[in-house]
Amino acid sequence: MTEPSLESILEAALMAAGEPLSVDRLRGLFDDAVAPSPGAIEKALQRLAEQLQGRGVELRQVGSGYRLQVPEDYAHWVSRLWEEKPTRYSRAVLETLAIIAYRQPITRGEIEEIRGVTLGSNIMRTLQERGWVRVAGHRDAPGRPAVFATTRDFLDYFNLSSLSELPSLLEIGDPGPEHPELDLEVPLQREPSAGPEDDPHP
Amino acid sequence: MTEPSLESILEAALMAAGEPLSVDRLRGLFDDAVAPSPGAIEKALQRLAEQLQGRGVELRQVGSGYRLQVPEDYAHWVSRLWEEKPTRYSRAVLETLAIIAYRQPITRGEIEEIRGVTLGSNIMRTLQERGWVRVAGHRDAPGRPAVFATTRDFLDYFNLSSLSELPSLLEIGDPGPEHPELDLEVPLQREPSAGPEDDPHP
Amino acid sequence: MSDTADAGLLEPEVVATVRGQPMADWPRDLYIPPDALEVFLEAFEGPLDLLLYLIRRQNLDILDIPIAEITRQYMSYVELMKDLRLELAAEYLVMAAMLAEIKSRMLLPRPPASDEDDDPDPRAELVRRLREYEQFKEAGRSIDALPRVNRDVFTGQAAAPAMQPAQRQPDVALGELLAAFAEVLERAEMFTHHRIEQEALSVRERMSETLARLDGQRFVPLTEILQPHEGRPGVVVTFLAILELLKAALIELTQSRPYAPLYLRSAGVMGPSEAAQ
Asked: pLDDT of C13-25, one tens digit each?
């Protein structure tokens, strides 16, 4: 092959090193007799930096020399490499979210009444940190309890244009004569596991 | 800034990772809603590979995915970065590795039969500690002997994308200098031979 | 091991004692001085390897092994090995026995009636093993010649950009939400007498929206909340939402005097008396 260019050799070395290399160390890649001058190295590094414009990697001078680095503009994507796998939300979180979605605005006490258990403080925090639930106001009652509602982000996430697009219970196959109030008119799309025939009317 | 191109994003991720990334993992850099298709990722990788032509870095597909690496042409300079000479492996290790690579899954007894000698325990330990060989299962035979196979790390380390890239097993008719260190250079002429054991991909 | 090759030029003297017999000569093909013998032996990976060497040394066709000659040479090597590296010798002795067996079988006259198939050439199995071994010997060499990480190729790595380690949020499907709600309702029905009241979700939504618009201490005129451009259904839904919010004590409705404009304000933010101004 033809002799690679000086800047390609420097790029290769910086790439392989994965750490900053000084001009001296870069000169050490060559036999003494043919080692480029420090000035020639610096010039080649300059050319390399120009070649890398707009690429996923850039040349940067740091304390101990030069190094190749992924520009910060790419942090959004690159950081995903180190993200932990998302854990699943607990049933408590999902139920609470569902109650808030369908019964908003609603106080913590009312949620607890429906679920029949005390609401752990981390549940509401999880939902608020996710940006799906917010405090919508306070009820003029003893203690002035906060009332919770879902947010626009919640609708966006679930691809809904408004709460009225939330599916009715019918969609999971509950014919629900005991809940006629939930009998919203929505075209049905059942999950295969639970059709109405699985749940004979009591 | 303007949105970086897909290939630059992939380049950035491969750079930052410093290890092979599968197409799946590359897709994971994006939110589900905007993740490019596997085909689009492959195409962008192709463009990236073309952009890197003649540079100090190349895109290479190895066992566990794609990685950016310094091409062999640069080893002359780049190896200067490290004082240590890379480990040499004994013939026993290399032959055992070759037998496992071409004949996997294979038991220790079968390896010994081919080599005609008992397999020193340190050989299998070396191969397993390097992460090149693993116990792939047990044969349903008396003693339930372990069967060995090569790993993805083996492919990665030897710059292979799959076992089919292994050099094909030589026909025995091929002349080759035996023990050149013993001053043995004899031209050989043999009948062409081909047996079932010549098949490199059992 | 290039020194062993150069050493082949040395003049041999009495080099070893084998079975009490002083040996003035190494076997014809073994151009190796005594102090290099151990190194030489280590160059072989076993009896098959040695056998291959002998065949190659003699420029013999592997498929046509002259068993008598090979056996003779082999035995002399094994004798040397026994003296030097006893622990190595066992496998070589097995091979020697096998060669001797083949040799003896070939010396025996073949029964005239015997068929070629019934009495295959006793060398066939040896040849098969030698060929197979040689293949993998070569394959080991090919693998050694493959480009290797940190010897021939080097993985590219660049410093990662500054990042906040983001926590990835779990995904939730709408169906999961629905299932969760169904389960809650079922439980509520079973264990409590909580009455799920009938309200269209559009009213619920409007309640939340109205609360959001009343966020803070400001009094908002009722007419600002009821948007005529939403049409009759919109105004009705908003009105129902306001009634629900009043009933739930989430907002206050005030009027400074009869027939004056009605004002809404979110409840519970501050005491009503201080907020009146």
From this structure: 444 444 445 555 5
The helix (H) or strand (E) run that includes residue C21 is strand C21-23
Q: What is the ipTM of this complex?
A: 0.61
Give the closest residue to A170 by CA, choosing from A185, A157, A156. Answer: A185
Give the nearest chain B residue to C171 (CA atoms): B32
Q: How confident is the model at residue C85 (pLDDT cuts 50, 70, 90)?
A: low
Chain C nearest C-alpha distance from A26 (Å): 16
Share of chain C above pLDDT 70, in %: 67
* Residue from A40, A30, A38 nearest A7 by CA: A40
Beta-strand runs (E) in chain A? 58-62, 65-69, 106-107, 133-138, 146-150
Chain A residues with CB inside 8 Å of B4's CB?
Answer: 54, 56, 73-74
Chain A, window 48-77: residues with a beta carbon less than 8 angstroms from a chain C beta carbon: 57, 67-75
In the numeric block, the tokens 């292979």 are attached to B160
Q: Are C3 and B181 in contact (CB under 8 A)?
A: no
Q: What is the pTM of this model?
A: 0.60
pLDDT band per the 50, 70, 90 thresholds, residue C112: low
- Predicted confidence at residue B114, as pLDDT, reads 93
CA–CA gap between residue B192 and residue C274 (Å, rounded): 106
Beta-carbon contacts of A34 under 8 Å, excluding residues fewer than 6 positions away, are none
Pairing of strands A146-150, A106-107: antiparallel
Identify the weakest region by mean pLDDT among A31-45, A188-202, C210-224: A188-202
**Cβ contacts from A onto C, under 8 A:** 197
Between the alpha carbon of residue B62 and those of residues A79, B26, B68, B199, C140, the distances in Å are: 23, 15, 10, 23, 20
Could you tell me if residue C101 is left (phi over 0), alpha (psi between -120 and 50 degrees) or otherwise beta? alpha
Which of A25, A55, A68 is facing B8, going by the closest CB pair?
A55
Strands (E), chain B: 58-62, 65-70, 106-107, 133-138, 146-150
Q: Answer positive or negative: Cα dihedral of B168, B171, B177, B182.
A: positive
Residues 6 or more apart whose CB falls under 8 angstroms from that of C191 comprise A116
Q: Which of chain B's residues have a Cβ under 8 Å away from the Cβ of A44?
A: none
Out of B12, B54, B55, the one facing A56 most closely (by C-beta) is B12
Q: Distance between CA atoms of C235 and C207, rounded to whole angstroms?
A: 12
Quickly state the pLDDT bin for B124 (edges 50, 70, 90): very high
